[in-house]
């Protein structure tokens, strides 16, 4: 049996005019909801291009901080390639590791031999539903002069990520199928409003 921890996830997008209907339905079926404004940076190994050229997909680091919580720490996520669609046709299942960083996560990432590839802000809502967290957000770009977020255009697409709130192990007590079923329940709940699907990116 694999010693990896996994994330199980589904993804979707919708237009602003559907926001209130979708918020209403998700809120009805969630235990809690709050606003979210997060800064996220993606780092790749300094030799990422060399790795790609030699047929290896480099491991990216995602570094995230919640800006609405005054004491929030940086959290680093690392994902490996999703399991094949033959093994998990209905949801994205990928090995996942996460750790909190005390101090400057950017320095930490560069000390590991990583360079910054992109930076975005996400503004929206977070819902909790059992073992899942549902994020619904619009991406904000960064003003190159001030490095501050620029509000998303009113018509910008909203993105939805339904995922396990913490890495899960595939064990007899907690089989991955339980978490796949949990995200598929949300897919069914949102049917007709959002098309939630597996993605490999």
From TrEMBL:
The keyword Transcription applies. One of its GO terms (cellular component) is mediator complex. Its main location: nucleus. The keyword Transit peptide does not apply. It comes from the Eukaryota. GO terms for molecular function: transcription coregulator activity. InterPro entries: Mediator_Med18 (IPR019095). Component of the Mediator complex. Belongs to the Mediator complex subunit 18 family. This is Mediator of RNA polymerase II transcription subunit 18.
